[in-house]
Structures are given as C-alpha cells and as structure tokens.
C-alpha cells in the first residue's frame, strides 16, 4: 500500500490521524509516517485498514458480494471463507481456495488480493 493510498483511505473513513491510530493500535507518529512515506505500511496495518473500510456502516449501498459468487467458485464448500460465511473477507483469511491465491500466503496473497474484484468492489 502506498502512502497516498493510506491517506486516501483514512480520509474515506472520515478519521483524523489520531482517531485512526487508535483504531489501528499504532501511534499517531506511525500514521503520520505512513502518510508521509517515511515508513512503509506493514501488511498487518494494511489488512486492518481494509477491514475497517469493508465493514463500515453504509447507507443503503446494497449487500456485499461474496467471493464464491463473484468468482463462480466450484470448491467453496471446502474453503474457510465459506465455512465462516466471510466471502467478503476472503482477502483477510489465510488458507482460502481461490484459484488466483491458492498456495499463497502473507505478502504474496495480499499483492494478488489488492487488485481482486472482491476487495476493490467494497472499497
């Protein structure tokens, strides 16, 4: 995640740097550093930020689409996203069976998920 993306998403949430730092469990200096590009955004902070964005309350914007629907998944019943009814959070879970991320975890998986329609359609 770039510094400008981090800043954009903070503003999209309507949060100050101080309030976002509390939600992310980091110091205000860390948030400032992410936005200025002095520090790269760690993967666990990026995932928390996406989680907040995806789960914010919306006013009549419709229902979230599950990954198995968007991707026409054939192995959904073996997947953790299906088991925990978290099809809109598949990018957050390890061990999912999406054909594009199967066998990838951590940074590799997040690199793929950043561009996936499941996540981007919710941001």
UniProtKB/TrEMBL annotation:
InterPro entries the record matches: Cro/C1-type_HTH (IPR001387), Lambda_DNA-bd_dom_sf (IPR010982)
GO molecular function: DNA binding
Domain HTH cro/C1-type: 8-37
Family annotation (CDD domains): HTH_XRE
Annotated protein name in UniProt: HTH cro/C1-type domain-containing protein
Lineage, broadest ranks: Bacteria, Pseudomonadati, Thermodesulfobacteriota, Desulfobulbia, Desulfobulbales
